[in-house]
Amino acid sequence: MKILLDEQQLSSGVERLAQAINQSYGSRPLTIIGVMTGSVVLVADLIRKLEMPLRVGVVQTSSYQGTQRGSLTIHSEMMLDVANRDVLLVDDIFDTGNTLKEVMGRIHQLGPTSIQSAVLLFKTGKQEVDLRPDFVAFDIPDEFVVGYGLDHNDAYRNLPYLACLEPSDLSTPS
Ligand code: IMP
Ligand code: MG
Description:
The protein has 174 residues and is an alpha/beta fold. The strands form 2 sheets. The protein has a 6-stranded mixed β-sheet, with helices on both faces. Strands 1-9-8 form a 3-stranded antiparallel β-sheet. It contains 4 helices and 9 strands. Bound molecules: inosinic acid and magnesium ion.
């Protein structure tokens, strides 16, 4: 496994993301919707750096089996009322963009005042949708990454750094 972003780099990235979000919203109350499970660490770190009054909800999606994309499933509806609210959708990574686009569409139907999106990582060259997240901490190359909330078959989410999964890691029994 090769480290792509260490703890210090991740922390500065989240700080930059928070500053941009604080600047954009000022003191307007915000409803954060975290796309689970990958954004669990980012949401926890990010919300403690945001200064406006905020509420936190989650939506659960899944699209990968191992390193292969399957079809996107949204497992549960938003737990929080988003009508007439400023909503910020938070996800770990923008890869093809299908997840964010789909979840944004769902939120849109619920009548929010506004919707923006924030991601820790933007994987370059994979986009399949005409949408760019509003806030991005890092652009990364097209590699399968784990750690800081991101998983491979539900493993590695607890790594405090972000690492590229290499072929030799895939053959290691867990
Ligand atoms: P998208 O719909 O292709 O943008 O995929 C987004 C979702 O796939 C993210 O929310 C992640 O959970 C997952 N994903 C995409 N790329 C990676 C990766 O490199 N490592 C781990 N999960 C990933
Ligand atoms: Mg995800």
